[in-house]
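Pasting as-is:
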Amino acid sequence: MTTFLLIRHALTDLVSTGPVGWMAGIHLNAVGRAQAERLTAAALAARFAVEVQALEEVGELRYGDWTGRDFNGLAGDAAWHRFNALRSLARIPNGEMMIEAQARIIAALERLRLAHPEQTFAVVSHGDIIKAAVAHYLGVPLDLLQRIEISPASVSVVNVNALDVRVLAINWTDDPMALNG
């Protein structure tokens, strides 16, 4: 089976303020830097002597008009409420539908699985994108996405082959190296 370690990026000061999407200039805070020492792509690559590869398909949800707004400012936005209640059908204004984001991460993971069967991949991404992948593998509708918690610096583990899927962990925040032997 191919193993995917779906890792949410470490903590930034903007994690709980609002959708930042593809905004430039977001940096880890002090806690995030400590988390990154054990968890991010560069730290894992150095530990296992492998190459880091950037895949746009596993990037953050495209938040369109909501990028950079804070959650308090979105509280009165009917489109925001619809998006959070009906993720399977709602499009972010000038942004992406959750189903499109889910399709792109699953397509990327499937390409990796087919190209490198029986390997383990550490895929560092964002909360909603990892939620979408986990929901797919669990068979959970996107409309229930908010029931899945993906914390900063957490690991969710999925084993996949041509005939089977096993979700081994969701939102694990202890030492992620223990999961890989």
